[in-house]
Amino acid sequence: MEKKEGSYKKRLKILFVSSESAPFAKAGGLGDVLFSLPLALRKLGQDAKIMIPRYATIDPKVYKLETELNNLKVPTDQSKGPYPSLICNVKKYLGGDTAPVYFLENMEYYEKRANVYGYSDDHIRWMLLCRGVLEFLKRSSWVPEIIVCCDWQAGLISNYLKTTYKKDPVLSKIATVFSIHNLYFQGMCDFRFIKESEKDSGHEPLPDFFNPRLVKLNWMLRGITYSDIITTVSPTYAQEILTPEYGEGLDKILNEKRDKIYGILNGINYDYYNPQTTPHIPIHYSSLTIARKRKNKTYLQKKFGLNQGQNTFLIGMVTRFTEQKGFDLLEQIIDPLLKNTTLQLFFNGDGESRYKECIKKMAEKYPQRVGYSMEFDTNLPHLVFAGSDASLIPSKFEPCGITQMQAMRYGSIPIVRKTGGLADTVKSFSPEKNEGQGFVFKDYDSFALFAAVIQANASFRFKKRWRDLIKRAMEKNFSWEKSAEEHIKVFNNLISKK
Questions:
Q1: Are 457 and 341 in contact (CB under 8 A)?
Q2: CA dist list (Å): 471 to 368, 393, 409, 438, 456
Q3: Which CATH class is domain 290-474?
Q4: Which of 138, 254, 374, 443 is deepest in the core (most CB within 10 A)?
Q5: Residue-wise pLDDT tens digits, 4-32
Q6: What's the rounded Cα separation, in Å, for the pair 52 and 50?
Q7: 41-67 mean pLDDT
Q8: Cis before residue 82, ω within 30 degrees of 0?
């Protein structure tokens, strides 16, 4: 049942701080989350807002941004030098199609930059965001009870609140949530290879904006250390990061904080990923008209030069071509898999040149059975999910993953490794009981992946069972409302303790 405004006892003021948020700036899944979760919270009666930088690609005229605050001085803590503070402005967007968004403006670090990431001075850009948010809130009429700091780029907000601003009459009352979307990325350098003498303890004072030491700080560590609670994007990932295998060197501190860690599964936008209405596929269908899905398969095969046929098992893979996504396993089995079966493979994404070359070689060797598109196209995944029989996601680790949810929404049966959010969202198919939504393998091993693909290929021949499998997958509920409800429970618990 849909909950109306006022369904919860307390209407909380919540500010999400992030490096990106769709539709304004999106480089990955984080941007989708920052669009959907605050909006879902508002639909449940919460006062959720967002704050991100205003990059060059965010046109204030296109989005009709209003001025919220001018000439905001953000201290840099540089005692000797030309920049004791940086001047920022704050704009706001109240368009109604998203949660309200504040934009931190600074000509040098944001407005001259077209990209979200990838600059040598990113550490200064994110430190300016962390401190700029807090300086803005000191002068704002709207002050949140909770700040959700999203990933390492916002990790120093909690640090600042517990140190620099601990006696501030307004800011000291704000509770903090550190949201871990991917523990692998912890700051400006790879902390697995840093010298012991240069490692960040997490407790040394924060340097000024221009101090070279800032590059070596572990922002993820500090977010974990200073935040009131920690959330991850799936229950299984919340447990996995407590182990040396998945803890990325932070498992010790995470275990010390384990009673403050909550795993809440992400969702997907059911209006956007909707096979009944999306303009990005030729034939619309639903779980009640599954037969219509076959025409999308024919369209995909024809568009990319694959042999056309409904009895050929077509596997799609929409992902980054990296080791994290399991490409080192696939690289070992792709040739024998194609030699010993009649299945087809279609790849959509970009990534490491090694894996791109592997895909291209297989397409040359099996020209009517392997297809790919390595061009950036936000619309093509809809067609891949609608046109494929299965989606391959053999990740080495996967904090949450939304690809499997999107695939199931379109009736593309997931073949996944049992890790992180994949383990939480896909139940293994049982032909005897006629239950489950996909094919799950446990060990990170090429033979285990090979066996899972062969099992899926064999099961595809049994059309009635496969149709039942598609129906169950399409009717699985991964809505953001469910995720928002879980977040509200955690937020209310935090406020009651605070």
A1: yes
A2: 29, 20, 10, 12, 16
A3: alpha beta
A4: 254
A5: 444 456 899 999 999 999 999 988 789 98
A6: 7
A7: 96
A8: no
Burial (CB < 10 A; 0-12, 13-18, 19+), residue 364, is exposed
Alpha carbon distance 275, 294 (integer Å): 13
- Give the separation between CA 102 and CA 117, rounded to whole angstroms: 19
- Does the structure show a pLDDT above 80 at 448? yes
The token duo for 33 is: 């989350």
Q: Do the strands 66-75 and 85-93 form a parallel or antiparallel pair, or are they unpaired?
A: antiparallel
What are 456-478's pLDDT values in tens digits? 999 999 999 999 999 999 999 99
Topology given in CATH for the domain delimited by 13-267+480-497? Rossmann fold (3.40.50)
Q: Which whole-number Å values give the CA distances from 408 to 36, 287, 393, 404, 452, in the listed order?
A: 19, 11, 12, 6, 17
Which residues of the chain does CATH 3.40.50.2000 include?
A: 13-267+480-497, 290-474
Q: Which two tokens stand for residue 22?
A: 């769709």
And the tokens for 191? Answer: 């902390």
Residues 121-135, mean pLDDT to the nearest whole number = 98
Contact call for residues 319 and 402 (beta carbons, < 8 A): no
